Amino acid sequence: MTYSLQLYTVRKPLEEDLAGTIARVASIGYTNVEPYNFVATADQLAAALAANGLQAPSGHAPLLRADQDEIFTAANKLGIGTVIDPHVDSSQWSTEEDIKATAAALNAAALKGAGYGVRVGYHNHEFELEAQFDGRSGLEVLAENLSPEVVLEVDTYWAAVGGEDPVELLKRLGDRVRFIHIKDGPLTKVDKDQVAVGAGQVRVWDVIAAAPALEVGVVELDDFTGDIFDAVTDSLNYLKAGNK
User: Fold this and answer.
1) Is the dihedral of CA 214, 218, 224, 228 positive or negative?
2) How far apart are CA 241 and CA 202, in angstroms?
3) For the chain, what is the largest distance between any 2 Cα atoms, rounded to a whole number of angstroms?
4) Of 9, 60, 133, 217, whose CB count within 10 A is highest?
5) 147, 107 Cβ separation under 8 angstroms
6) Where is each Xylose isomerase-like TIM barrel domain found (predicted)?
């Protein structure tokens, strides 16, 4: 299993000292990271990754709201093989027609991305699961309308907050899921309630086992009340130990 760290987790230290933060992430033991909004910092980030032997198999960027050519060019510079759109506004998940329009936009982005050798994906929050259509969640409606080339990165914590059993959801989505966000906590909508992986209510190992085509498990905390580096260290140690 390959583990990565979503750099949004350490966004505050990253903004203060990008090179030093990347070096610290590497010293903790991470070998992969998932950058976010990486166009503006692509040159500096590429240098820091190379200096610390880190890879970036995936990255988050607003594909449906920004210049796709700039995003894919930056992805190539960083060695990012899959660019994942992290957010389509909750207002766009109230009807199947809106969801189909989002799928069509992602399919078009994937066609453009293919010209750069970059795959396209989508990452959920809770509202895509809260939206229900004849027993199917909005995320599943999206998946039904995506081209085979478009993948999903399921945020398993937000899926649970949205009312789904993430294990059963992953089983239903099957090979479409190539990445997951691994996070933990009491399953509330309060970001600061999140804790290190293994210290909350998520059935982490069941979740990981439920994604048959999983390529990378990405550790993320949207926020944390303590020292964020303690949380990302404890998360990786838990995952490496395989402590069930």
Assistant:
1) positive
2) 17
3) 51
4) 9
5) yes
6) 23-200
Under 8 Å between Cβ of 137 and 128: yes
Is the C-alpha dihedral spanning 227, 233, 234, 235 positive or negative?
A: positive
Task: List all residues 6 or more positions away from 25 whose beta carbon is below 8 Å from its beta carbon.
Answer: 5, 7, 10, 33, 52, 54, 232
Closest among 199, 150, 142, 195 to 169, alpha carbons compared:
142
pLDDT at 243 over 60: no
> Is 119 in contact with 83 (CB distance < 8 Å)?
yes
Joined tokens for residue 10: 């350490």
Question: What SS3 class is residue 26?
Answer: helix
Give the DSSP H or E segment for 39.
Answer: none
In sequence order, what DSSP letters do the residues of 108-138 get, joined into one string?
A: HHHHHHHTTT-EEEEE--SHHHH-EETTEEH
Domain holding 148, by residue range, is 2-241
User: What is the number of structural domains in the chain?
Assistant: 1
Nearest Cα to 178, choosing from 203, 145, 149, 219? 149
Q: What is the CATH number of the domain that holds 183?
A: 3.20.20.150
Predicted confidence band at 1 (pLDDT cuts at 50, 70, 90)? confident
Residue 139 and residue 131: Cα distance in Å, rounded? 8
Predicted confidence (pLDDT) per residue in 131-165, tens digit: 999 999 999 999 999 999 999 999 999 999 999 99
